[in-house]
Amino acid sequence: MRDVSKIRDQLKSHLETLNLRIGEIEGDLRTAPSADWEEQATETEGDQVLEGVESSALREAQQVHAALTRIDAGTYGKCSTCDGPIGEKRLQALPYASQCINCVTE
Ligand SMILES: [Zn+2]
Which of 32, 48, 67, 81 has its CA 20 to 30 A from that of 95? Predict the structure, then answer.
């Protein structure tokens, strides 16, 4: 049995960082649009970029959250597709990986 408490701490602080970032982005997105239409256009472009950053941060937060759930369930480090071990090196590079290198389709 691997010692997962360190990984768990790592994932938790990573999740906190992501949540902070998401909160900041949402705060930025909620700021009132300016009256000047030219400025508005620039803001809309900026908002699209922010939304992209937000959705990738949200996706990552979901993956981190899922990894924490797997730690609690005792299935951490197991591939969600083939049930095989994900592998130490891959978990070091991506602690919230849910699939082994053979099953990753991304
Ligand atoms: Zn697999």
Answer: 48
The CA 60 to ligand 1 mean position distance, Å, reads 20
**Cα 86 to ligand 1 centre (Å):** 7
Alpha carbon distance 60, 56 (integer Å) = 6
56 Cα to the center of ligand 1, angstroms: 23
Token duo for residue 42: 């620039």
Distance of CA 85 from the midpoint of ligand 1 (Å): 7
Assess contact for 8 and 70: CB atoms under 8 A: no
Residues of 7-42 as b/e, b for ≥16 C-beta within 10 angstroms? bbeebeebbeebeebbeebeeeeeeeeeeeeeeeee
Give the distance (Å) from ligand 1 centre to CA of residue 55.
26
Measure the CA–CA gap between 16 and 72, rounded to whole angstroms.
18
Look at the pTM and tell me if it is higher than 0.90.
Answer: no
